[in-house]
From TrEMBL:
Subunit structure: Component of ORC, a complex composed of at least 6 subunits: ORC1, ORC2, ORC3, ORC4, ORC5 and ORC6. ORC is regulated in a cell-cycle dependent manner. It is sequentially assembled at the exit from anaphase of mitosis and disassembled as cells enter S phase.
Any GO BP annotation: DNA replication initiation
Keyword entries, A-Z: ATP-binding, DNA replication, Nucleotide-binding, Nucleus
Cellular component, GO annotation: nuclear origin of replication recognition complex
Domain Orc1-like AAA ATPase: 21-167
SUPFAM superfamilies: P-loop containing nucleoside triphosphate hydrolases
Record's protein name: Origin recognition complex subunit 5
Compartment(s) of residence: Nucleus
Gene3D superfamilies: P-loop containing nucleotide triphosphate hydrolases
ORC5 lid domain residues: 216-283
GO terms of molecular function: ATP binding; DNA replication origin binding
Function: Component of the origin recognition complex (ORC) that binds origins of replication. DNA-binding is ATP-dependent. The specific DNA sequences that define origins of replication have not been identified yet. ORC is required to assemble the pre-replication complex necessary to initiate DNA replication.
Keyword Nucleus attached: yes
Length: 433
């Protein structure tokens, strides 16, 4: 029995829509009840929120396109000013009548101009008899525009006296939108995150035709068992599933196992999923490079230099500053003379040094150091002479901003600021290389 039913829309279209939006049937059913029939006035504004990759944009596009409802879809990140946003809405309205992408340019400087031009566009396209939907994706960007833009969109139906509904899609809650002077309250709707069962059902629909659905579903179950605790993003999981499926099928292709031999297939794919865990979300290399990396020689847990720090680009002296900060954090002050002076003389090994010589400073963590010690080590490790200019000090501030260094204490200390180096030894090796 179909879950989506509405007397205003054909049953075949609703059945097709239900197959396109799995695990979101309840949200689509609620939206259809709010929309009503085509000629009826809908709610003036609807606010839909939920975490990233919860299906807000996809469901809304699919719903409006499948049922062939007149709509305008605008991403507020692409059109980041009020003028660009209003003009894009009017340009898309023009395309309804012309049926082509290229339309005459529209100039809209103020909100009153937009209301006037909007009335003309709706009247010319004979849209008075059905609801027009304006969807604003990434609507949190509206808070950065003029103060009258958001309240105007929320009651655009009243301002234009036309059958129009504005739908706001956002990742934050409505309480962070509400202006101080008050505004028309939209109908709020929440899209929850996909559960592991929902992700299993959605990802299993993409199985290749040469393999059975049960075989691909078992692969998705293994993939979610590894990645679900660290990644709930449907797009990222779909990318990981496509990227690692060929490796999962290798024993079957070579004839070493059949599709039901789950244990042997898991043994083959486990080290490669662990490698993928280290770069989830980063996308440091392309899919073809990742496949070549999987087929190359090396230990399963080794990334062959693939990590975030190999792609960090810093100015010339910032690299030396970071190396000097690492040396200052992990070497005791008493060793500076021995390490950084050419003629330091003979150094006695005290009982304290003998007692603690087996303790690794990396296990103890970074120690704070003053600014003058950082600069002293910098001057000793750089070949040419470095003048303590404002450029050097600004680069130290930039390293703190990038969280490669952390400032310890307050800025108003009389003895000067103290810092800690927050990067790992592998990071420093990559920078020094």
């Amino acid at each position: 029995m179909p879950n989506l039913e509405h007397p205003a829309y054909p049953a075949a279209d609703l059945l097709h829509l239900e197959g396109l939006v799995p695990c979101r049937e309840s949200q689509v059913s609620t939206l259809l009840s709010i929309f009503g029939e085509r000629q009826q006035f809908s709610f003036p504004s609807i606010f839909i929120y939920g975490h990233t990759s919860s299906g807000k944009t996809y469901v809304m596009k699919t719903l409006l396109t499948t049922l062939q409802l007149p709509h305008v879809f605008v991403n507020c990140v692409e059109y980041f000013t009020s003028r660009l946003l209003l003009e894009e809405i009017l340009i898309q309205l023009q395309s309804f009548s012309s049926g082509a992408e290229q339309t005459s340019p529209v100039h809209c400087d103020t909100l009153s101009d937009f209301v006037r031009l909007f009335k003309q566009a709706v009247a010319s396209q004979e849209l008075q008899d059905q609801t027009l939907y304006i969807v604003l994706d990434r609507a949190e960007q509206l808070r950065e525009m003029e103060a009258n833009i958001l309240p105007a969109f929320l009651r655009l139906q009243e301002l234009t006296d036309r059958n129009v509904t504005v739908i706001l899609l956002s990742e934050i809650v409505w309480e962070l939108f509400r202006p101080n002077m008050g505004c028309f309250e939209p109908f709020t709707m929440y899209f929850p995150d996909y559960s592991i069962g929902h992700l299993q059902k959605i990802l299993s629909q993409n199985h290749p035709p040469e393999y059975s659905a049960d075989f691909y579903a078992a692969y998705i179950n293994i993939l979610l068992g590894v990645f679900y605790m660290v990644c709930r993003d449907l797009k990222e999981l779909r990318h990981l599933a496509a990227l690692n499926f060929a490796k999962y099928c290798e024993p079957v292709v070579r004839g070493e196992a059949n599709e039901r031999d789950t244990r042997k297939l898991w043994k083959n794919i486990e080290p490669h999923l662990k490698k993928a865990m280290q770069t989830v979300y980063l996308r440091e290399i392309s899919s073809s490079q990742w496949e070549r990396l999987q087929h190359g020689d090396g230990e399963p847990g080794q990334l062959k230099g693939l990590s975030a720090h190999t792609h960090v680009e810093l100015p010339y002296y910032s690299k030396f500053l970071l190396i000097a900060a690492y040396l200052a954090s992990y070497n005791p002050v008493r060793t500076d003379k021995r390490f950084f002076l050419k003629h330091h003389g003979k150094i006695r090994k005290t009982n304290f040094m003998k007692k603690h010589e087996k303790t690794s400073n990396h296990l103890l963590g970074p120690k704070p150091f003053p600014l003058d010690r950082l600069l002293a080590i910098l001057y000793s490790i750089v070949d040419n002479r470095v003048a303590p200019t404002a450029n050097i000090f600004s680069q130290i501030t930039s390293l703190v901003t990038l969280q490669l260094l952390s400032m310890v204490g307050q800025n108003d200390q009389l003895d000067g600021p103290r810092y800690k180096c927050t990067v790992s030894l592998d990071f420093i090796r990559a920078i020094a290389r």
